[in-house]
Structure formats: C-alpha cells, structure tokens
Backbone:
C-alpha cells in the first residue's frame, strides 16, 4: 500500500542533500539490555540525523518493543515522545520481533527471531516539510499526523455522534449518510481526506470491535489506505506491568465450497466432512505439494469480502439483510469470479469428529438466509520459495500502479509487517546480524534504494487491503490478514504549486 505522505533520506549512508520540501525518514534499532538505555541511544541517533535540518523535532513516529518483559509500553512511548518532540503523534506496540538500522549501519532484527539480540526497540520516525505541517492543506487533504484510539468506550461515542447527526437530518432535511459523517466528526477529520491510516490492533480485542472499527473506517474514508498489524500478546507480568499484501502460501487443489458452518466451526466442505475433503485433495496433490503439506499442514483461504458501499448504490451486500432493493447475484455470476480471486488465509485445527476450527475468523451462518448457499474457499500450503516470486510480482505491480498518479515522488521510506512464520532461516542472516538478504527486505530495498529506509516487525497478523492499494485512488476493503508479507510505502505529494 502507498500512503502518499512524503520522500527522504535517513542519516548514515543516505545522501544529505534533501531540500526543505523533502521529508526525512529514520529507521533506528537499539538492542541495549535496559530499555532506558535503548531509548537514550535511539534519541541520540534521531537527533544526530536532524543535525543539518532547520527543525530539530520529528512530526510522527511508530515504536516497536520486543523482548523486554514487564516493561510498560506506554512509558517507553512517552519517553521517546518527549525526546523526539512528536507532540503525542507517536504510537507504541509490542511485537514478536522488530527491525531497523543499528548505529553500526546494519539493518538487523531483535526479538524472539532476531539475530541482533533477544530484546530491542525499533523506531520509525518521519519529519515532514515545513509547508506540509499545517492542519489542512489544499483541497482538504489532511497532512498533519493525528493519533487516535478506538475501544469499546470510543465506539459508544461514535454511535452517539451518529445518532445526533441522524436527529439533525430529521429536523434539517437530508444531508448525506450520517454514519461516515459521524466517524469523521468523532475522529476530528471532518471534511478532510487523509491518504493513509496506520492501525495497530490489540490481540485481545474482540472480533466485533475489530470488524466494527475496520468497517467504520472504510465507510468514513473509502479511498484511504489502512495499513498495520496485530501486536503480540503481552507476556504475564512479573515485576510490574507487563499497522502491499503478498501471501506466503500457494494454492493447492481445486477451489472448494464451505456448505455448512456455524461461527468458527466448519462442518461441511463440498457436502462432506472437512477432514475427508482435505484428505482427497492431499491424495491428488503432487509429491512436492504432499511434502509441504506433511511439513506445514493445510491453510484455508476464504474469499475476500466485498467493498462496503458508501453511497448506498447497492443495497444488497451479501449479508443477512431483508427488504433489499437489489437482487442477489446468480450462481452463474458468482462462478465467474472463481479465477483471479484474493484470499484471506487462515490457520485451521481439526476436531475429533472431523470438523475444522478457524480461530481467527467468524463465518456466522453458512448457508445464510439470503444469498448463495455456500462460501468459496481454497486450500493453501506454506511455501516461502513460491512466496518470494509472488512478492517480486507484487513489487512490479506497485511500481506500475505508481505510474498512473501524476506528480508522485519516489517513496522515501517503507514499513514492513510480516507474519512470524515467514521469517527466513539463519542462512540468509549475515555474520554481522544483517537481514538485508531476507525475502521481503531485499525486494523492498530495491524499490527504496537502500536498506536504511526500512523499518519493520514480525507480527501475529497484518491489516490492509489485499493486493495493491494506492492512497486517494480506488476503494478496497480493509481486512485482517494472516500468513502474509505486507509493506507500506511512504511518498510525498506536494499540495502547492510552489513546492513543485
């Protein structure tokens, strides 16, 4: 995905000829044993990289913490907020592993799967040009970073705002759909059009809250790219208190149909017991596919949900709704979608009675009361060699998509979020702890022109639209991904003629 915010150079090996209209990007990793020492090292490096800039503060940042047991993330984030001068425009998250540039100039990773050490703190920081830091630029584009938090209480506030707007509509007359207006008003965006939103999901948040927030943001900002990850589960406290999308799996076998399901339990696939259906696919697989299945097991891909309609032009959306003015698509029409689909890949667990459990997905009722009597699905198996080829294709698709946006400058930085099971083995790690040759890093560095412009994390899930999405152009539904490699590219789009 491309948030279209800005372009830079980080310190160290990057060039320092950036002008006032060029954003600066920093990716810094510290592996100090003490988190306070790590914060001090990151702060010193961040200030050093701004030594030739007229402004000595950063505009927004993201902090990844990994391996520090019993450390309050809020305290780490607040310490960096005061040191960097981000004015609360900074987000902190616990992840399994985090990556960034060490002070030695090597891109490495810290955490449970990091060669740099068992613990570490990574910082992604951006300084925007002076002319881009106003609250609202030309044409209502939101350019100043605005942090927000959404939980159960905040969702109640969103609902109250929507109800108030609905009451005003009855009194003053029609004025547009109150639901997206309510979301924008509650978040303080109003009539602005942000190009990108970074999201970080609490792994303990309920599926209802997560789905409600993602759907609400898609309604309020349909052309805005949402990107992020699911943070790591916090370890139990001992001494105090304890986000483009390319798959890492390949399709195997023919497309199947879930014909009976209830919530997270799949009871029938193609009209028979799920375990039996999986056994038939395994028997017909090639020797290589059988080897991969025996090593990693099956993954189940579910069809990506359709885009939410913001203008109510299509009343029927495939959900259990009554009284729709548009007839559901025919089976023949749905069958034509069988080729070229994007899939949400999920882990599955067999039950003693032959059924399957999908813990990170709620299928509700299959068959539903309205719509097709089945749900399309596709079996997958993890194959990192094939995933690397697909990632190269995704990068080419991203470069091609950029060509259709006039005036868009070269990306100045990237955020990489990958599922922890896609991490490369030790054979791709350099003697100095460098991960520059890993599958996802090498492809991203080729686009950005160097590894010093990459920050990333290994997560328990990613958030973003499937395939390629460009901020401000096109509408794609935001989904919670799994077993994928996702990257977000930051680009600067000048909003005034003087800037160019």
Residues:
């Amino acid at each position: 995905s491309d948030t279209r915010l800005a372009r830079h150079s980080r310190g160290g090996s990057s060039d320092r000829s950036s002008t006032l209209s060029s954003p600066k990007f920093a990716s810094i990793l510290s592996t100090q044993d003490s988190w306070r020492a790590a914060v001090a090292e990151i702060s010193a490096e961040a200030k050093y990289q701004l030594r030739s800039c007229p402004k000595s503060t950063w505009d927004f940042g993201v902090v990844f913490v990994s391996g520090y047991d019993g450390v309050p993330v809020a305290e780490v984030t607040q310490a960096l907020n005061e040191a960097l001068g981000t004015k609360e425009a900074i987000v902190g998250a616990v992840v399994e592993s985090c990556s960034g540039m060490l002070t030695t100039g090597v891109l490495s990773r810290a955490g449970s799967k990091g060669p740099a050490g068992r613990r570490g703190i990574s910082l992604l920081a951006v300084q925007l040009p002076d002319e881009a830091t106003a609250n609202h630029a030309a044409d209502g584009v939101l350019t100043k970073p605005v942090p927000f938090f959404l939980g159960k209480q905040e969702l109640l506030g969103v609902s109250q705002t929507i109800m108030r707007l609905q009451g005003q509509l009855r009194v003053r007359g029609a004025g547009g759909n109150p639901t997206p207006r309510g979301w924008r008003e509650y978040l303080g965006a109003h009539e602005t059009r942000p190009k990108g939103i970074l999201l970080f999901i609490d792994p303990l948040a309920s599926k209802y809250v997560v789905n409600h927030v993602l759907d609400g943001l898609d309604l309020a900002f349909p052309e805005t790219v949402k990107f992020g990850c699911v943070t790591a589960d916090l370890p139990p406290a001992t001494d105090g208190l304890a986000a483009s999308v390319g798959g890492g799996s390949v399709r195997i076998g023919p497309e199947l149909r879930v014909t009976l399901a209830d919530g997270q339990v799949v009871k029938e696939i193609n009209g028979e017991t799920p375990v039996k259906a999986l056994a038939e696919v395994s028997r017909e697989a090639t020797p290589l596919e059988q080897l991969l299945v025996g090593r990693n097991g099956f993954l189940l891909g579910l069809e990506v949900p359709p885009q939410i309609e913001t203008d109510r032009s299509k009343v029927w959306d495939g959900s259990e709704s009554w009284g729709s003015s548009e007839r559901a698509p025919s089976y023949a029409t749905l069958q034509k979608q069988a080729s070229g689909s994007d899939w949400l890949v999920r882990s599955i667990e067999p039950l003693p009675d032959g059924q399957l459990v999908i813990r990170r997905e709620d299928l509700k009722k299959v068959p539903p009361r309205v719509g097709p009597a089945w749900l399309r699905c596709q079996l997958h198996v993890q194959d990192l060699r094939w995933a690397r080829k697909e990632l190269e294709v995704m990068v080419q698709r991203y470069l091609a998509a950029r060509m259709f946006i006039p005036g868009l400058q070269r990306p100045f930085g990237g955020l990489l979020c990958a599922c922890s099971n896609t991490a490369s083995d030790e054979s791709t790690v350099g003697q100095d702890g460098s991960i520059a040759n890993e599958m996802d890093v090498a492809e991203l560095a080729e686009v950005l022109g160097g590894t010093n412009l990459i920050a990333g994390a290994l997560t328990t899930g990613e958030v973003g639209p499937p395939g390629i999405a460009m901020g401000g152009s096109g509408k794609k539904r935001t989904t919670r991904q799994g077993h994928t490699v996702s990257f977000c590219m930051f680009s600067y789009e000048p909003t005034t003629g003087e800037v160019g």
Observations:
- Residues 152-172 form the longest helix (21 residues).
- The mean pLDDT is 77.
